[in-house]
Amino acid sequence: MEIKSIDSEAFVQYGYIVKGHDFSELLEVLVSSTEKPESGVIYAPGDGNLEKLPIAVSIRDNIFGGMPVQIGYCNGSNVTLNSLEYHRGSELIVAADDITLLIAQLQKMRGFTLDTSEVEAFLLPAGSAVLLYETTLHYAPCNAPGNDGFRTIVVLPEATNTEKPDIRYNCGEDRLLWARNKWLIAHPDSPEAKQGAFVGLSGTNIKL
């Protein structure tokens, strides 16, 4: 699968590169205070050591316009698509290591299903940051070529990816709600599908 640059025209529909902010201290604390599993990934919606740093104010006020956010991380090793998710709100990703993002347009879904041929891969270099639009389907980062794992900052609207609300099922999209502010479609071969997630991905379960 071709891995494209975030500087390419192909990335414009998914988000933009965030510049003008110094994320170095944020990444230093991430690397020094969080673990990186050799296989699989760990995800923390929010982390107190990261959220108390001065840059957290700029992230909240400048990038998210003053809306309350959580600053967490996703670390580990991953080479498979498995699922795609979306949120009500954009997502900031800051890479401590080179990572590959597997993403697609929400508008490409039909009946809450998507063929994986619609998924594109982009390299996010270490030290860089992107803001993914609300309409960008995404999931856990994947290893970049030659890397055996990663650490990544993930910033989202506050309480995203926490406990799923107890809802009354009124429409088709309700079947996709997997956690708070997290709608997910899984590939039939994925661990998430085996856990009961809505199977909405068809085609090859992409593996890098």
Helix and strand arrangement:
Layout: E1 3-5, E2 15-17, H1 24-33, E3 40-44, H2 48-51, H3 55-63, E4 69-77, E5 83-86, E6 91-95, E7 99-105, E8 114-115, E9 120-124, E10 129-132, E11 136-137, E12 142-143, E13 150-157, E14 177-179, E15 182-186, H4 191-194, E16 201-202
Parallel strand pairs: 1-9, 8-16
Antiparallel strand pairs: 2-10, 3-4, 4-13, 5-15, 6-10, 6-13, 7-9, 7-11, 7-12, 14-15
Give an account of the 3D structure.
Strands 2-10-6-13-4-3 form a six-stranded antiparallel sheet. Strands 1, 7, 9, 11 and 12 form a five-stranded mixed sheet that branches. The longest helix has 10 residues, at 24-33. The chain has helices spanning 24-33, 48-51, 55-63, 191-194; strands spanning 3-5, 15-17, 40-44, 69-77, 83-86, 91-95, 99-105, 114-115, 120-124, 129-132, 136-137, 142-143, 150-157, 177-179, 182-186, 201-202. Helix content is 13%, strand content 33%. The chain is globular and about 40 Å long. It has a single domain (3-161), classed as Jelly Rolls (Sandwich). The chain is mainly β and 208 residues long. The N and C termini lie close together (7 Å).
The global form is globular
CATH class identity: Mainly Beta
Mean pLDDT: 97
| Beta-strand fraction estimate | 25-35%
Task: Give the termini separation.
Answer: 7 Å
Specify the biggest β-sheet: 6 strands, antiparallel
Task: Please name the CATH architecture.
Answer: Sandwich
Biggest sheet strand order reads: 2-10-6-13-4-3
Structural class: mainly beta
What is the radius of gyration computed over CA atoms, rounded to a whole number of angstroms?
A: 16 Å
CATH superfamily: Jelly Rolls
Helix content percent band: 10-25%
CATH topology: Jelly Rolls
Counted beta strands: 16
Order of SSEs: EEHEHHEEEEEEEEEEEEHE
Poorly predicted runs are none
Q: Helix count?
A: 4
Number of domains in the coordinates?
A: 1
